[in-house]
Amino acid sequence: MPLRLDARDAGFPAAFRSLLGMKREVSEEVDDAVKAIVSAVIAGGDAAVIDYTSRFDGLSLTPDRLRVSDEEIDAALDRCDAEALAALRVARERIETYHRGQKPTDWSATDALGVTAGWRWTALESVGLYVPGGTASYPSSVLMNAVPAKVAGVPRIVMVAPTPRGETNPLVLAAARLAGVDEVYRIGGAQAVAALAYGTDTIAPVAKIVGPGNAYVAAAKRRVFGQVGIDMIAGPSEVLILADRDANPDWVAADLLAQAEHDTAAQSILVTDDPALADAVEAAVERHLATLPRAEIAAASWRDFGAIILVPDLASSIPLVDAIAPEHLEIEAADADGLAARVRNAGSIFLGSHTPEAIGDYVGGPNHVLPTARSARFSSGLGVLDFMKRTSILKCDPAALRALGPSAIALGRAEGLEGHARSVAIRLNL
Amino acid sequence: MPLRLDARDAGFPAAFRSLLGMKREVSEEVDDAVKAIVSAVIAGGDAAVIDYTSRFDGLSLTPDRLRVSDEEIDAALDRCDAEALAALRVARERIETYHRGQKPTDWSATDALGVTAGWRWTALESVGLYVPGGTASYPSSVLMNAVPAKVAGVPRIVMVAPTPRGETNPLVLAAARLAGVDEVYRIGGAQAVAALAYGTDTIAPVAKIVGPGNAYVAAAKRRVFGQVGIDMIAGPSEVLILADRDANPDWVAADLLAQAEHDTAAQSILVTDDPALADAVEAAVERHLATLPRAEIAAASWRDFGAIILVPDLASSIPLVDAIAPEHLEIEAADADGLAARVRNAGSIFLGSHTPEAIGDYVGGPNHVLPTARSARFSSGLGVLDFMKRTSILKCDPAALRALGPSAIALGRAEGLEGHARSVAIRLNL
């Protein structure tokens, strides 16, 4: 049974706070192991990576077989299911189109004093994309991470993906090819993250590492941060559905379960002003679960972290939505656009009854790498800007320096930084 | 004596790598102490903050005296040096004008299939700004952190600044007033970071914490990351000056020392194609040091981390610049604009002989919070985007879902996520 809350109950504020405070991430004690692996890769390079790959993935490699060859990728494309491959092409095209609009523009202007100020965006010189092995090896995630990097203009995109016992997901390699990934290595875990960050004889280092992974990968990314950039550390996925009496309970239940099937730690929340819909959705969830292949996972997520919150009216639920700051927000209600406009904190919003979140996972166009665990209060989904950086530019002519210099000198002295003041004064003969 | 390197020497590549690998940060073992402080503030709230403030700052407070009153800020403004206050107004105005251009625009479009996709930027709901006490209490940093947040539209900007033994820097309070900071608290250290992240009875929590601080503050920011957003953890400051024979050695030396006077761990590097300039700058540094108030700090930085690199020509130095990825890059050379255009990695660029970096520290307009320690390879200086986040928006009408649905279903099934596929199929009666 999921949690049932009613915003009109006296105990609601406390119950809602406890919902917000729910810990869904299992913190595994992997830091020491990861520290040793990263150090070993820094010291041992390819040999260390090969050693860990043999131990953890049961795969015996040599330096020249770390990289997946173009021929292997060609062969993988041939093995792909034609329908899935066609869908992947649709997805790639739509993701690219959406993200092209995110390319930022440079700016520069000279003001009345003669000061030219501006900024310039440049692509990162190289990016590493981590792709998990096993069941969490999603070709859609390859596109969602690599396409924005490509749109940004990153000249070198490297992918690492473990292939336990040599098994590769051909669609993952196909996605890499479609997205324009430049190099693919069949390695994973903390050793792959360390190789990307510090480089080996075979693998040149990258400037930033993105992509999802297990606790070891997450710990390794945290550890190499600073040496390279990293993206967010994603937590379990989550959806909040705002629905009114006109919503179809079967559809709402399907969407709650699409989220819940990801992970026993995923979270699906329904917020509604209609008690009858709440009951109907709860019943529909049970019906769907009877035939869902991943029912065990989805049922555990729904039981342990699911919630149904009754509110007097949907407008009054906006502060609750902002406090939860859901990764995915679906609004299946009469005034979906009006409600959406009032939401401050959400990673992504899906409007209306014909926009199930799964469309956004694959082919909508927007990115599916989104802030989890309330971090939509302060961060955004992955995009082109994550693969670029901004350099500010300043240029004074002699007259501009004469005009601005005295203020800089005054502030330098006020801050006790006489050297700052002098570097200006010396040019003005002050 | 700073390091002297010549790019034509056989040993240059190794020497340059070792320059890149130089560790300038002192890693202090403060994590255990910070962990205890954060836990105590979560559990004890105001009382814990007051207790630590008494112990660490020698300041005895009550909950109602945590906040600096408007009257105290008025009084601080009256105590400020008039020239410094006027300069602060100039700085605020110029910083605001520059950052206004960074406000991103929302976007949305409906494509031929009937899919509406777009994104919306919203300001963070609240931001906390840490301002160090003592000698590193810089009013200019208050402006550089608070003005972009204000431009972004953050409705609640909170500042914390320790006041050891009750001493406040009036210009810091004046900067807070000028920048539109909404609340100021006279607390600091890890306890202030914890109060901002988790809230107390007196201090409501914020969504993100920015601003510089000592090792305790940095460790506390790392620890509360996730609960709130944080900005980068800044390392010691650095400048790289590209100069040719026409550069004025006295001016170049002054700029190297303006950087070096920040911190014994700061780094100043000169790259030139002119051996005579290299010698003249080195001599000028010694002359300047004789009269610089912070000569002891600047001399240590120049001795331990300073470097002069001779290159055959400045164009060939661009790969070195990109590898160093300096926080500040000054180009005092004939073709400054042309050289700048070829640089990929730099936090900020200062063009020509009349743009000393100190102008950018105070009144140029661009932000002075910039990526250090080679992180300009993958990150940008502080700006308006750091105080906003993007929500993606997707809306399908029934026809759009019919057009896109089959691709989503194919990919859901290919990834083993039947629940995803069903959430689409159920709407299409598939």
Automatic annotation (TrEMBL), chains A, B:
Q: Which cofactor does it need?
A: Zn(2+)
**Catalytic function, reaction form:** L-histidinol + 2 NAD(+) + H2O = L-histidine + 2 NADH + 3 H(+)
Q: Where is the active site?
A: 327-328
The entry's substrate-binding residues are 237, 259, 262, 328, 361, 415, 420
Question: How does the cofactor bind to this protein, according to its record?
Answer: Binds 1 zinc ion per subunit.
The EC number(s) this enzyme carries: 1.1.1.23
Pfam families in the record: Histidinol_dh
Q: Which residues bind Zn(2+)?
A: 259, 262, 361, 420
Gene Ontology molecular function: any one: NAD binding
Q: Which CDD domains does this one have?
A: Histidinol_dh (cd06572)
Q: Which GO terms describe its biological process?
A: L-histidine biosynthetic process
What does the entry list as the binding residues for NAD(+)? 130, 191, 214
Q: What does this protein do?
A: Catalyzes the sequential NAD-dependent oxidations of L-histidinol to L-histidinaldehyde and then to L-histidine.
Recorded protein name is: Histidinol dehydrogenase
Q: Which gene encodes it?
A: hisD
